[in-house]
Each structure stands twice: as C-alpha cells, then as structure tokens.
Amino acid sequence: MMPAQLPDAPPQGKQPLGQRRFARLGRGGAAVVLALAASAAVNYALAKRAERRNPPQGIFVTADGVRLHYLDRGSGPAIVLLHGVGAMTGEMTASGIVDALAANHRVIVFDRPGFGYSERPRGRIWTPAAQAALLRQALDLLEVERPVIVGHSWGTLVTLEMALRDPDRTAGIVLLSGYYFPTFRPDVPLLFWPAVPIVGDVLRYAISPWLGRLSKPLLYKWLFAPAPVTSSFVEEVPSELIFRPWHLRSAAAEVALLIPGAAALAGRYRELRIPAAIIAGPGDRVVDFDRHSARLYQALPRSTLRALPRTGHMIHHSAPDQIAAMIRDTVRATQAAENAGVG
User: Fold this and answer.
1) For residue range 109-132, what is the model confidence (pLDDT) as tens digits?
2) Which CATH number is 146's domain given?
3) What is the pTM assigned to this prediction?
C-alpha cells in the first residue's frame, strides 16, 4: 500500500497562496488607514487655517457652562436672530438684515451650540428644548427681557420652543422657511452619519469635508432655488468654517433631530398666544411651503402668513429688504399691543 502523498511544499522563500492574499489585504488595509489618516490631518489643518483667517467677530457669554459666541449690534427694541443647520452668525450678517435692523434696534445674533464659535458639549442631546433653555439663560445674562425672536430653518424650532416655554418673556416671533411638522425627509438618512460615533469620526474628519467642497455649488443652488445664489453669500460666508469636522458633526446631529424635534412641538402650537409672523417662499425646495408654513398658519391663533414668490429656502438672502421690513412690522405690532395692554 502506497503512503498518502502530502501536498507539495511551496518553493523555498515563497508563502502559500492564502497567506499571500492575506498579506495583500493587510497591506491594502494599512494603505487605506494611512490615506484616511492623511486626509483627516489635511482637513484638520484646513479647519484651523479657516479659523485663523476668519476669527470671531463677536463676543462670548457663558451660560449653563456653555460658551456661546454672539454679535450685539445697535440699540433699541431687542431682536434675536437664530440661524439654521450648518450656518452661523456670518451667514446672517452676509444677508444684510443685521445691518438693516441694527439701524434702530438692538440686534443679537447667536452662533447656536456647535456652530461658528459656540461650544456644543457632548454630554447633552441638543434638542430645540435644550437650546431654548440655554439661549434664554444667555439672554438673561445679556439683560434682554422681551425680544422679538427670529428663526430661520432649524432655528424656527428653537424659536417656537422659546416662545412656548416663556411666552411672557417673548414679545413676538418671526419664522423664516421653517420645518414645523414631522414629515418624511429623504435627506435625513443620508446626512446624519457624521454624528454617529466612530463611523462619524472617520467621515467628518477624512471624507465629509471633501464631499462638501465638491458638492458646494449644487448645494447652494438647491438652498436658493428658484432664486439665484447671491454674490454676498458666496463671497462673505466662509465655507471652510462650515466644513470643519466639529461643525459638520453639529449639523449632522441636527439633521437627525429634525423630525423628532418637530414632532415634540407640533401638538403644542395652539397654546401659543403671542404674535407670530410666518414667512416663506412657495418655491422652497428644501421645506415644502404648503405642508409646513401654510399648515402652521392654520395652527397658530395669532399668526400672519407671507408668501414671497420666486424665493427659496434662503429667503433672508433673496429678499433681505422685505424680510427686514416684516421683522420691523412685527416689533411695532408687539409694541402697540403692549401699549394697549394686550397680552
């Protein structure tokens, strides 16, 4: 009986095929890790360069242990401006409404938590309610008692929460291009990933900034459509600040909180008894006018609705003079109501 033959040994100095494959995979994996690390290092360096080139233009206040950056311009009846997802004080000033309103009002523009130069501690879930409580504390520190609060996009949720929590300390509200009811958003499953632990760290440091830079022209067109993108937005809003990894994390977290944030508020709208001006563009491609602004008008007892044709989501950039005028009208209406003794 012949003994069983053993397989031929590999030639001296060569590895078996399986080992060679694992070695190639190992080298490929190491190359990917190195490429991601290099990309993250570059994006971190670009973020820090952007901060050096665009230092804070305002001042800071610490409320509830959170350092917030804000602008404080002008004097007179107080107006508070709250930006949307991914934006900051510089986006509001680029629209022109801050300078227009500051001519005869005290205008306070916050970097909401995690945006611009404001902190966003990770130990909290920054819902509209959490941000409303924080910003109200900040306003108390700034001795702002009964402002008209103006919110854009995601900032409208914070504005509504502040008004519902403290109606006696809010003169009125102006809501620009807001999302108010929990409706399906196809962008949420795509855009929340940079906020996910571990996976999100890799995305926002190594990948997402590059995707943001590549998609910026299309993103701007989507935000402004059907209106054209304004030159002031392109030239004055420092996009590299928006592409900082920590800024991207805050934006992704708010995308994830958009639907639950609206759901938490939707059943309470009829409780609001202060004046509310709702302004939006029927052509808005980010938030549907009829499903949100027109529907909210029916839900808020003391509201007015203004539709600005041929404007999109960035309505304060596309129609800054009209928006500033409507905010002034709201301030005058609240003052007249207070003088007449109407709550």
Assistant:
1) 999 999 999 999 988 999 999 999
2) 3.40.50.1820
3) 0.89
Interacting residues of 116 by C-beta distance below 8 A, sequence separation 6+? 56, 69, 88, 89, 90, 241, 247
317 Cβ contact partners less than 8 Å away, ≥ 6 residues apart? 94, 95, 224, 230, 232, 233
For residue 14, pLDDT over 70 is answered with: no
Tokens at 24, concatenated: 């190639």
Amino acid (1-letter code) at residue 122: R
* Tokens coding 113: 């938590």
Helices (H), 278-319: 295-299, 315-318
The mean pLDDT value for 159-164 works out to: 98
Q: Alpha carbon of 187 to those of 184, 200, 258, 288: distances in Å?
A: 9, 16, 11, 14
Report if residue 284 sits inside a domain.
yes
CB 89 within 8 A of CB 57: yes
Whether 199 is in a domain gets the answer yes
Tell me, what's the pLDDT at 12?
Answer: 57
- CA neighbor of 59 nearest in space, from 110, 114, 19: 110
Structural domain containing residue 82 = 51-339
The predicted structure's pLDDT at residue 1: 47
Describe the chain by its helix, strand, coil percentages, rounded to 5.
Answer: 55, 15, 35
* 8 falls within a domain: no
Please say whether the beta carbons of 95 and 320 come within 8 A: yes
pLDDT tens-digit series, residues 190-228: 776 777 778 888 889 999 999 999 999 999 999 999 999
